[in-house]
Design a protein that fits this description.
The protein contains seven helices and four strands. The chain is mostly helical and 175 residues long. The protein has a two-stranded antiparallel ribbon with strand order 1-2. It has a two-stranded antiparallel sheet with strand order 3-4. The longest helix is centred in the first third of the chain and has 22 residues.
């Protein structure tokens, strides 16, 4: 039997059996192998991701953040993926950019007109919905913080419910 030796603080040798060392390596390796599986994000439909890149003006969007935005918006808009594909087709069919998209949707009387503001708000502010039914899906990783990241550091927490920062002091229950 092979014995590995180490010394404790008092200079005494500690005997470690090869099996114990191998079991430790195996346990460590198993834990390391499982970590990436736990960290995987949910797949986001290509149409939604393409639309998000177009509307936000970002060529690259964080996959984890994309999964949060997609999941949050899907709760409010059950036909999100279908509408995202329809919106992409609308833009490509007319050859329009994001700066004129909203006006074109409203001029056409499209029922898709409410979708671009929802998506942009979710990405930039991290909030889905409006008023008392709004909920926060992300805060620190919202795009609003990336826009000013060269000068400002985002706070690490929300100070209240979505939009509470806009109320005068004391009105939102803040002293």
């Amino acid at each position: 039997m092979i014995r590995l030796h180490a010394q404790n603080n008092h200079g005494r040798r500690l005997g470690l059996k090869r099996r114990a060392v191998l079991a430790g390596f195996a346990a460590f390796g198993l834990g390391a192998a499982l970590r990436p599986a736990a960290a995987q994000t949910i797949a986001v439909p290509d149409g939604f991701l393409t639309l998000s890149q177009f509307l936000t003006g970002r060529a690259s969007l964080d996959p984890h953040h994309a999964a949060l935005v997609h999941e949050g918006l899907s709760l409010r808009e059950p036909a999100l993926d279908t509408k995202a594909e329809q919106l992409l087709a609308f833009m490509q069919g007319r050859g329009i950019g994001p700066e004129v998209l909203q006006g074109a949707l409203e001029d056409a009387g499209s029922d898709l007109a409410s979708l671009p503001p929802l998506i942009v708000r979710a990405w930039y502010i991290g909030v889905v919905g409006e008023g008392p039914s709004a909920f926060c899906i992300t805060f620190e990783s919202s795009l609003m913080h990336q826009v000013v990241a060269d000068r400002l550091m985002p706070p690490s927490l929300c100070y209240g419910p979505p939009g509470s920062w806009s109320a005068p002091p004391g009105a939102a229950g803040v002293p």
